[in-house]
Amino acid sequence: FHNDSGCAVANTVIAVKKGIKMIQGTINGYGERCGNADLCQIIPNLEIKLKKSCLKEDSLKHLTNLSRFVSETANQIANPSQPFVGRNAFTHKGGMHVSGVSKLPKAFEHMDPEIVGNTREILISELSGRKSIILKAKEFGVNLENDMKKASEILNRVQNLEHKGYQFEAADGSFELLVKEVTGVKKKFFKLESFRVLNEKKEDGSMMSEATVKVLIDENRIIETAEGNGPVNALDRALRKAIESCYPALSRITLTDFKVRVLDEKKGTGAVVRVLIESSDGKKSWGTIGVSENIIEASWQALEDSIIYGLMHVEKNK
C-alpha cells in the first residue's frame, strides 16, 4: 500500500485480518510521494497485537536498530515520533506520569519497549518532579534514592534554569553535568580564564573569525588562537588546540548539529538566545545547551558542556 491518505499501515493490518497472506512495505515507510506502508509499524502490530508470527524467534528485538540503520544509510533524519521504534515512542516527562511509569509501566505504555529493541526515556523539564530526577540520574550512575536533599536541589536548579530559557529535553549532556556538579562527582578537565572572538570582513567580501582562549589545566596556563568560518567554529578550534595535547581522546568528539533560537523576539537584537549543540564520539550522541543575551556566550556554554561531557565518557570507556 502507498500512504497517500495516511492509511497504509491500517489498511495492511486489516488486510491481514481478512486473510491476506503476503504484504508489501518498506522500512520506515520510505517511498515516493507520501511513502509506503511502514514495516516497522506493521511487523510489531502483527506479531504483538494480532499474535501472528512473521519473523524468526528473537528477531523483533532488532527492529529499532534496523530502522535507525536504514535511516543512516538513506541519509534521512529518523522520525522521533515513529511508533514502536522512534526515540519518543516510550518517552515520559510529566512528574506524576514518570512516577506512575516507574511503579506500573503497563498503565502508561502499550508494550515493553525492549521487545522491539527500543528503550524507555525520561525527559527533564519544568514538569519534572523529584522522581523524574532520581530516575534520570540513575541512568548515568548517580543514586539519589536516599538523598532527597540533593534531588530537591537539582530539581530547584532545573526549574530556575527553565525560567531563564533553558530546556533539558534535548540537552541530556548538560543535565548530567548539572547532576554531577551538585553531587560533587563532576570532573574538571580545564578551567576557562577568558576567551575573545574577533570577526573580520575582508575587502573581497569574505568573513573570517578568530578566537583566543586562555585555560588552566592543573597549574598550567595555556593560550591558543585559531581561525574559523564563524565565531563558534573558531572557539571550538582554539579550545581544541589548547587542551588536545592533554586529552588526545578529544579528537574522537565532533559537533554534529548547532541550533539557535531567539526566546523573546520583541527585544530584537537584545533578545535572549538559546543554543543547542549535538555532538558525537562515533558511538553515541549527546545534546548540550547554553542561554544568554550574548550569542557567543550561549554558544560557549553549550560548547564547553559538550567537550566536558565527551571527555568524561570517552575516558570512562577506555
UniProtKB/TrEMBL annotation:
<dbReference type="GO" id="GO:0009097">
    <property type="term" value="P:isoleucine biosynthetic process"/>
</dbReference>
<protein>
    <recommendedName>
        <fullName>Pyruvate carboxyltransferase domain-containing protein</fullName>
    </recommendedName>
</protein>
<dbReference type="Pfam" id="PF08502">
    <property type="entry name" value="LeuA_dimer"/>
</dbReference>
<feature type="domain" description="Pyruvate carboxyltransferase">
    <location>
        <begin position="1"/>
        <end position="61"/>
    </location>
</feature>
<keyword id="KW-0028">Amino-acid biosynthesis</keyword>
<dbReference type="Pfam" id="PF00682">
    <property type="entry name" value="HMGL-like"/>
</dbReference>
<comment type="similarity">
    <text>Belongs to the alpha-IPM synthase/homocitrate synthase family.</text>
</comment>
<comment type="pathway">
    <text>Amino-acid biosynthesis.</text>
</comment>
<dbReference type="InterPro" id="IPR005675">
    <property type="entry name" value="Citramal_synthase"/>
</dbReference>
<dbReference type="Pfam" id="PF22617">
    <property type="entry name" value="HCS_D2"/>
</dbReference>
<dbReference type="GO" id="GO:0009098">
    <property type="term" value="P:L-leucine biosynthetic process"/>
</dbReference>
<dbReference type="InterPro" id="IPR054691">
    <property type="entry name" value="LeuA/HCS_post-cat"/>
</dbReference>
<dbReference type="GO" id="GO:0003852">
    <property type="term" value="F:2-isopropylmalate synthase activity"/>
</dbReference>
<dbReference type="InterPro" id="IPR000891">
    <property type="entry name" value="PYR_CT"/>
</dbReference>
<keyword id="KW-0100">Branched-chain amino acid biosynthesis</keyword>
<dbReference type="InterPro" id="IPR036230">
    <property type="entry name" value="LeuA_allosteric_dom_sf"/>
</dbReference>
<keyword id="KW-0808">Transferase</keyword>
<dbReference type="InterPro" id="IPR013709">
    <property type="entry name" value="2-isopropylmalate_synth_dimer"/>
</dbReference>
<keyword id="KW-0412">Isoleucine biosynthesis</keyword>
<dbReference type="InterPro" id="IPR013785">
    <property type="entry name" value="Aldolase_TIM"/>
</dbReference>
